[in-house]
Amino acid sequence: MKMNNVRATWGGIGVAVLAAVLVAGTASGELLAKKSLSLEDARKAAAGAVAEAKKNSWKMAIAVVDDGGHLIYFERIDDTQIGSIDVSIGKARTALAFKRPTKTLEDAINAGGNTAILSFPNVLPREGGIPFVVDGKVVGAIGVSGGKSSEDAQVAKAGIDALTK
User: pTM score > 0.85 for this model?
Assistant: First the structure.
């Protein structure tokens, strides 16, 4: 009978400690508040990019991804090469993952000093991907493909500008 009391006491202490840890853990933690791109934001950015591409008679694929790299919005201008679909998405995801325009990665490779970038998984180091930055935080990215890299970047920048105006 004495052993049962000891077990019950230790069991009660264990439950009390576990409850205290759980309460303290939830009481001290706060959920993070973060900004994110809406579908409307993505459409607005893509519309700005499409307008720039059409103004120059360029056939482009435009992809907008959220802060997790998931596709929010995609648009392909008529007669754009189908290879540009995956390339535009890859540029957007690369810009997001590295929190910088993809041109910086392309420049690092072209300078001859950092070819290791080519071995990174799921990286597309070609100009035309730019992250959306809000209050110093990357909330998504736009990627464009279909023209020369500089044209892709010009169209992507128009998408960024359309959202920030």
Answer: no
